[in-house]
């Protein structure tokens, strides 16, 4: 299980430009990444296409730190790491403040980490993902 997905709700309205910036940062961290899915939000007159799914080929600490920093900076919210299926999925946690990480495991366990920087969040996510192997 090397790859991971970064998921966005269409209502997040993540522009293609913002998504390409994240893809570039992930690539610069040494991992291949690409936009997998775009959506045109229904009900938004004149709304541009938004990105709803980005894939990264590996889950290194550097890549996970880039992703968590992006989510913090763009949405000012916590991070959710969903390990209940494959591949692992990362998204913003709307109900958690910036600096928080919630990890969901397939066995029903949940871990909440608070007041962590993006590098610490990256390390915590990498450890959780590695524990599944």
List the defining traits of the structure above.
globular, 7-stranded mixed sheet, 7 strands, 133 residues, alpha/beta
Give a verbal description of the structure.
By secondary structure, this protein is of the alpha/beta class. It has one domain. The protein is built from three helices and seven strands, in the order βαββαββββα. Strands 2-3-1-5-4-6-7 form a seven-stranded mixed β-sheet, covered by helices on one side. A hairpin with a 5-residue loop joins strand 4 and strand 5. Helix 1 packs antiparallel against helix 2 and helix 2 crosses helix 3. The protein is globular, with a radius of gyration of 14 Å. The termini are close together. The relative contact order is 0.20. The model has no long low-confidence stretch (mean pLDDT 87).
Helix and strand layout, with pairings?
Blueprint: E1 4-7, H1 16-28, E2 33-39, E3 50-56, H2 61-75, E4 77-83, E5 89-97, E6 101-105, E7 110-113, H3 118-130
Parallel strand pairs: 1-5, 4-6
Antiparallel strand pairs: 1-3, 2-3, 4-5, 6-7
Helix pairs in contact: 1-2, 2-3
């Amino acid at each position: 299980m090397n790859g991971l997905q970064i998921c966005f709700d269409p209502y997040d309205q993540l522009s293609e430009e913002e998504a390409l910036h994240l893809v570039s940062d992930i690539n610069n961290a040494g991992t291949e990444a690409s936009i997998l899915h775009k959506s045109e939000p229904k009900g938004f007159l004149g709304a541009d296409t938004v990105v709803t799914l980005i894939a990264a080929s590996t889950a290194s600490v550097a890549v996970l730190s880039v992703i968590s920093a992006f989510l913090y900076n763009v949405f000012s919210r916590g991070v959710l790491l969903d390990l209940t299926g494959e591949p692992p999925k990362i998204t913003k946690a709307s109900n958690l403040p910036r600096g928080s990480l919630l990890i969901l495991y397939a066995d029903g366990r949940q871990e909440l980490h608070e007041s962590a920087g993006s590098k610490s969040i990256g390390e915590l996510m990498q450890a959780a993902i590695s524990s599944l192997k």
